[in-house]
Amino acid sequence: MVAFHRIFVIDFASLGLGEAPDANRFQSVGADTLGHVAVSWADKLNLPTLQQLGLGNIRIDHPLPGIDPVESPTGFFGRLHVSAQTNRRATGLREMWDYNGATRTESVFDTLPAAGYTVTVAGPFLSYLETQSLAERVQLGDNKDAFRILYDRLAQPASGLTYVLLPEFRFAGEQQETQAFGEALMLADRYVAQLMHDMGANDLLIITATHADDPTIAVTPTREYLPLLAYSPSRPSTHALGIRRTLADVGATVLENFGLAGHAAGHSFLNEITQ
Question: How confident is the model at residue 42 (pLDDT cuts 50, 70, 90)?
């Protein structure tokens, strides 16, 4: 029996939370995507939904301007660290969803449909996403399109996974536009609020990122910790998920939820949010 009927994963691709321990290997010392965007907005960056989920609680040792920790977060919160020894744009994406099968590299996006679950993969053109042939694939142009897909899938009863990569943060990060990055964050925050309002009791929302792009640093992508927020209306009691050693923990959690834990790389945090 599955713990959650449907899982929705939103990839805030480019949203880093500060330099990773191996940042020096990737010319990313001092990188802090969200911190630098927040500072540039002079306390005007307003993210009430993400803040209530626990975004500010992730790094209480290094507070984010305008995104304070909250006493009782509505979400589980933590940080992800990329374990791969490379830092290309698709590195984290592959790490989150791929695993070593018996004879070749397998994808969560193919394993779930083969087991009878629906999978929707939506994002801008990326060769990796284009090859996920068993999933329903949707090409996205902007974040508004992304949330439209999420709302549409929320209205459908089928059990499975919806993964959406928000495209606008990458463009803002690469073009070093902190204003555009902040504006996209605030709009996404409002969209997330509506999504949470419409979720069913047996739905799970995971908000994360597969890479970072600090708009104040010329290097792209930057090597940073990445956010992890998880929310379900059926889980009113939440806590910290700590620092996860690999993005594969997200894929492992999805697989375990649907009874496919034996396939996973990484360590699932499903028990941590269901106990």
Answer: low
